[in-house]
Model the fold of this input.
Amino acid sequence: MPRQDYRNQTVIITGASSGIGASFDKALAARGANLILVARRLDRLQSLAAELERKHQITATAIALDLTSPHVGVELKKAVADAGLTATSLINNAGFGTFGQFVDEDPARLSQEIAVDVTAPVQLSSAFLPDIIAARGFLINVASLAAYTPTPRMAVYGATKAFVLSFTEALWAELRGTGLTAFALSPGATSTEFNAVVGTDDATAGAKMRTPADVVATALSHLESRNPGPSVIDGRSNRLVASMGRLAPRRTIVTMMHRLTDPARRAGSK
Done:
């Protein structure tokens, strides 16, 4: 019997229209949770919400929101209240990356990346934590394997995910004893739209892909365990990579990552 009673949950999922977010939608709906689906594409969200309601007899509410907004926490809190809902749990899943030499990157795009990957999880966690604590729900912030090593050519993305990991692990400690479960989920390379948004497959350096369903299964298994820790990494090989990153000298790790993310290396191997 799962430790969580999902039938009493109303879960916000950001980035809900595709990839890991869509897999969270389906897995939680199948367990009986009601959902608040958040992304930019309202038509896609509404179609997904209708499908989940029909298949699982739950309530799924679609909310279109630009997560780069400087007031995203206040805006989503109001939208949820206007829908007559109270969120009991939150999954900060939305995020995107950029790839290239930092000196060549568009500063406006980098600002959007920081807004979605850092500011939005902080604001949304702040806005909804009182309700989640009262409901003894859960908070899952999606970080990345990139959180564990500096990532040349994805310097900002890696740094944002390192922030998410550190931020969430600190919350885990602060929230112990409240009945709320909080942890960071770190996927490695996963079959999503990530590379399409980045604009190159070099972003995952030819790594073997996990599926969104794999990642969500890892997250829910951790959530349902007796004493969930502050973070979990999806995939055995990814856990091994992260452990190596802790043991090797920083100079060695960042030099290795610089080679791994070099497009010329992959081009030469084809």
Remarks:
- The longest helix spans residues 107-135.
- The chain has ten helices and seven strands.
- The chain has a mean pLDDT of 91.
